[in-house]
Design goal:
Strand content: 25-35%
Low-confidence stretches: 375-424
Shape: flat
CATH class of the largest domain: Alpha Beta
Mean pLDDT: 83
Oligomer: single chain
Number of domains: 3
Largest sheet: 9 strands, antiparallel
Length: about 475
Amino acid sequence: MITISRSIIRQFRTVLKRAGIYKTRLALSAPLTLIASGEGLKLHAQSHEVAICYDLPGSFPAEQMILPQQFLDDCEGRKDEPVTLEAQPDGRSTAQWREGGIPQLVQYDAWEKPISDWPTTPESFAANEPGLLEALATASETTDPESSRFALGCIQFQGDKGSLVATDGRQLLVQRGYEFPWEVDLLATGVRMFSGPELPHDESVGVGRTDQHVVLTVGRWTIWLAIEAERRFPEIDDLVRAPETATNRCRFSPADAKFLARSLGHLPSEDETHYPVTVDLNGHVAVRGKTREQDRPTEIVLSASTQEGEPRRFNMNREYLARAVRLGLHELCFFGSEQIIQAHDERRSYLWMPLRAEDAIPPSPDAIRIESQSADAAAAITLPKKPRKPTVTSNPSPAAVEPTSKPRLKKHTEPDREVDGGGNCSPIEQAKRLRASLRETLADTNRLIASLRRQQKQSKVVASTLASLKQLQAISA
């Protein structure tokens, strides 16, 4: 008999779901293996790409159970309420717990399909700072799992450099300063499971490897990422450049970076593929947007930011710029109008390609200008058109990054904001108008119903009168 908390089952289910192991209760997914002993309880689950083990300390009767993933759906909960599991002589298993004080009992059939061997564990691990989990989460968001070109769904672990590299063919993210106990470059599956609170982000992370897996240990969790030995990764070594070789550089102050993050998505644009903005370095740092219908552009002036180099304008997808700011990379390096743009700090480099230089928006003396140092600058932004704001994940390789490539984007949900010009209005205003329209329609409908009822009454009166006349005619005859 094994007793386990419903909240632990919930945590395990959430991690499996993020890792892609957990599907739905109807899916033909891998089972769960529970191994109890005097040293503790281990919860196992795996797929072809990743394996996960949660090690619960304690003393348990020696026992092993294999359960379907439906068990997670049935028994998970937010409270530390116990679930009792018991193996039956015929191979079936039962789970018992209470739901709202009411006893629950579910029986699961014996698992008769073959189970893959559990992956081995390395003899030693290299210790890494807790920030490695966040780095893995950011790297995973920069992959493209659906790509058939190169191994763009993988993360590259560079053993000799201690770097994590990820790309989706349009953006490149390099994160340095980690310890890997091998010298070669390994490709491992880029699963998106590292950002959740179920994994401890304040504990050190051990990294090891076997012939088939990169293995991570953090807290009670052990994670095996399958090594993709036969797949190719883009060559990226020549793409990251030394900042001092840049022709132009700009640095966002912390306050300007926050202001830009809030404001960038509201600059006007009608190109819903690339969402272009112009970064103008001309004695000051300005970010500019415009549609063809506008007579003048809208311009964000970053008053506390600095720039170096000859005056020049750069045209780029705002989503890559926004991601650089979100990552805290506040220095941009430019190596030419058609060359890769690089945002960086001491340990990270984030690269993407610019858009066509000839499409950059020139300055205008009558531009709608918002100064970042204005106290209420963010609230004062009133723009002619607010583009849909997607989210990017990403990287570039020599052949993979092209100015005309179409980014794969996800929509962001933006807060309600009043918008001027062009007949556009905020969702609240649209809702008010819709409510007024519905009220008018309801009033018209009520009037129509009343009219029909009057006609119905009149018809009954006419019919009754005709019937009476016919009876009078029959009597007089």
